[in-house]
Amino acid sequence: MDVFEALYTTRAMRRVTEEPIPDEILKQMVDAAVRAPSGANNQGWKFIVVTESNIKNLLGDLYREAWDFYIKEYYENNPDMGASKVLDETKADQVVRISKSATWLSENFHKVPAQFVVLSRNDPSGSSIYPAIWNLMLAGRAHGIGTCLTTVLGMFNQEKTFDALNIPTDKGWRINAVVTAGYPLGKWGVAKRDPLEDVTFLNTWGNKPGWNLEEPLFNY
Length: 220
Ligand SMILES: Cc1cc2nc3c(=O)[nH]c(=O)nc-3n(C[C@H](O)[C@H](O)[C@H](O)COP(=O)(O)O)c2cc1C
What we know:
Elements: H1 3-9, H2 23-33, E1 45-50, H3 53-75, H4 89-108, E2 114-120, H5 130-142, E3 146-150, H6 152-156, H7 158-165, E4 174-182, H8 196-199
Bound molecules: flavin mononucleotide.
């Protein structure tokens, strides 16, 4: 696969089938993850690849609990994630789509074929793990596997997740993400984002580059 195709079309693919992912692919996803850089090449990471139904069920329950807490605390129990408060209509539609897809994931978390629990430690900036997570997702994309980076489990239900997975609590580990993975139900496409012009300056703050790109530089 062309590297730009992978870069532009790897997105939150939450809706997936229950078809198991072959071990060779799971293995390559983690193998690509550990090729990523980390600060001082520290490699303070662990990946727990969960494919067994009883453990996926446990994580599914914990994820739903965490997701419900998130919606309650951040969106006053409004499952559309505040779309009604977003002024721009196009953005509001996007938020509604994301909220529906995210609700689907919280209800079906236990059914996704693989859940990658990603942990790190000794990382004061908190950023060393994200190149590895992105490598894992890109490697999945190259094999036609849809992934979604999720964080609510680590944020709101870490203690019970440690318990469920026998993770030692005295070694400094924290859960950065759980990446769900499976064969997509949806279609691949290039993500809609704010225009470059709105987010890029040349040389100094406020100096617009004048690139005026209407469309992404990669078409799919
Ligand atoms: C740091 C981070 C945390 C995220 N946490 C969650 C999550 O807990 N649950 C979820 O369903 N999606 C989660 N997402 C997925 C985002 O909602 C998604 O990437 C974003 O809406 C853009 O979607 P798109 O790439 O399909 O356009 C997370 C993404 C990132 C980068």
